[in-house]
Design goal:
Blueprint lengths: L1 H13 L7 H30 L5 H45 L1 E6 L2 E6 L10 H22 L3 E5 L11 E5 L4
Antiparallel strand pairs: 1-2, 3-4
Helix pairs in contact: 1-2, 2-3
Family: Belongs to the patched family.
InterPro entries: Patched_domain-protein, PTHD_SSD, SSD
Membrane topology: Multi-pass membrane protein
Length: 176
């Protein structure tokens, strides 16, 4: 949906129309991606529907849960996510209107160059990203180390003849 929104926005910037609005852009996006989302959801739900008629209760429960999750994912994409994109698109649309009305005059080589500038589609780092990046990076490094070098437990049985020993677990970890 985001890719289609960017494609529609680029097309509207290149060929401005009088009826351009957030609703029009969103309708173009939904007309393009809506059928693909619906078909994808229906095929997954049909496959899980067929799988829910197996003799194994675990597989039946898994397939039934998958059918429900696919239905809720479809509802989420068509309602909440599309609405959220419309709200954010409204801010983008307003910013485009402001940028469209700005003109920069460059004087070079005895001529005047009047160019309309649009916002570049580059990502600007946010304060939230800068604040959370070290925490997330450190957490991911520790998680990767834990998955790569899992702690080892060794079972120790005391060797006393004729007496069953108690099992003791000793924790051995590698230094980080």
């Amino acid at each position: 949906m985001i890719h289609e929104w960017q494609r529609v926005t680029k097309h509207m910037r290149e060929t401005p129309r009088k009826k351009d609005s957030v609703g029009h852009r969103m309708s173009e996006v939904m007309a393009e991606v809506g059928p693909a989302i619906l078909i994808s959801c229906l095929t997954n739900m049909f496959a899980d529907f067929v799988g829910s008629f197996t003799s194994s209760p675990e597989i039946t429960l898994l397939c039934t849960g998958n059918m429900l999750s696919m239905w809720f994912a479809f509802l989420y994409q068509m309602t909440f996510y599309a609405g959220l994109m419309s709200i954010v698109g409204g801010y983008e649309f307003g910013s485009d209107e402001i940028d469209k009305n700005r003109m920069e005059i460059n004087i070079a080589e005895n001529r005047v160059n009047i160019a309309r500038h649009h916002r570049p589609l580059t990502r600007q780092p946010s304060k939230f990203h800068e604040a959370t990046q070290p925490i997330i990076s450190d957490s991911l490094q520790k998680y990767t180390h834990l998955m790569t070098y899992p702690p080892r437990f060794r079972i120790h049985l005391p060797s006393l003849p004729g007496i069953p020993g108690l099992q003791c677990l000793r924790y051995h970890s590698t230094e980080y």
